[in-house]
Amino acid sequence: MIKVTDEIKDSLKSTKIAFLSTAAKDGSPNVVPIGAFKFLDDETLLISDQFFNKTLKNLQENPKIALAWWGNQGGFQIKADITIHTDDEIFRQNVEWVQSIKESLQPKSAIVGKITGVYIVKSGPDAGKKIL
Asked: How far apart are CA 51 and CA 47, in angstroms?
């Protein structure tokens, strides 16, 4: 299992928008900006789905993602294998968390990603390098 560092967790926590990449079964790519995400632990990422359409269909067909961000504390790209939760304790915790931020949001699912890789996204000779 890949465990992210505090630097990576702090970087994502300080970021307001990240970019979620998915692909359909036929390989057609899709990227969307998202704002509801957090680490559940050192190995697991939670993405809350309020508005996914193509993205959710892609996740159902191909349960792999890449999440990239850049903020005040730098940025990274994470790759993960996901599961979709719609009616269990993980989903209920997701709803509670999202509605504590903005009560009017209605999550449709909780996307839980087990991290499979972490990459550098800043420019320079190490750009794109796998670090975990």
From this structure: 12
Determine the length of the chain.
132
d(CA 115, CA 60): 18
Using alpha carbons only, give the angle 6, 12, 32 rounded to the nearest 5 degrees: 150
8 Å CB contact between 110 and 96: no
The reported pTM is 0.94
- What is the tens place of the pLDDT at every residue in 90-100? 999 999 999 99
- CATH code assigned to 6-120: 2.30.110.10
Non-local CB neighbours of 81 within 8 Å, separated by 6+ positions:
63, 64, 113, 114, 116
Per-residue buried b or exposed e for 55-68, using 16+ beta carbons within 10 Å of the residue's own CB: bbebbeebeebbbb
CA nearest neighbour of 41 among 71, 86, 84, 6: 6
pLDDT more than 70, % of the chain: 100
Q: How far apart are CA 72 and CA 85, in angstroms?
A: 31
Copy the structure tokens of residue 26. 């036929």
Give the 3-state secondary structure of residue 77.
strand
